[in-house]
Amino acid sequence: MIDLYTAPTPNGWKVSVMLEELGVPYTVKPIDLMSGEQKTDRFLALNPNGRIPVIVDRDADDFTVFESGAILIYLAEKYARFLPADVKQRSVVMQWLMFQMGGLGPMMGQANVFFRYLPEKIDVAIQRYQGETARLLGVLDRRLDGRDYLAGDYSIADIANWCWARTASWSGVDRAPFGNLNRWIERIAERPAARAGIAVPYDLSAKLEGAADRSEAAERFAKQARTMVNTGSDRNKEA
């Protein structure tokens, strides 16, 4: 049994999608980011960096893993799925996983902060992070030209990038120009495990996938989420 400490963000979904794909029993431990629960002593004992997600593997002497990419690798290696054994194929998967960890996720996270969460709108920052997000989506789009998945078979690289790319409209970025990317997003969305994983701990798809405009519901959610930014500059990568 695995305990999953998580919240409804792309980084959290990466792990819940993976667990659903594996069919591994897990218990959801929701963390309220807006109240700052991730900064409590109880949570910091699990992850000193105060970020979700975290897993505790009860079948491995309560072994704790934080950082979403590290969790994906741990689970893939433990269950021998979604990460090839061949050294070259494995490297390709890891390259595209690191692309998400070091590029797509951070840039979209900053776009979310400046476009959605900060009450004051700094146009140069919004343009910078939206532009970089669009560029990175273009990299994925080109990679997916003639391919069903990023690195051969469906892998942790697809899980990680999909959980972020599907929410591009929340960052204010139009996905329409990226035909290959959109077909890949739709292909993965057809997987029952992927659909189940993005509903953990509850489903925000309607807000995050269809909110390119400034709808009233999106604005209410963004206003609530500003607490993650306003209560400390180190919280702006949580969503």
From TrEMBL:
This is Glutathione S-transferase. It comes from the Bacteria. PROSITE patterns: GST_CTER (PS50405), GST_NTER (PS50404). Residues 1-83 form the GST N-terminal domain. SUPFAM superfamilies: GST C-terminal domain-like, Thioredoxin-like. Belongs to the GST superfamily. The keyword Secreted does not apply. Residues 86-221 form the GST C-terminal domain. The keyword Metal-binding does not apply. GO terms for molecular function: transferase activity. Keywords: Transferase.
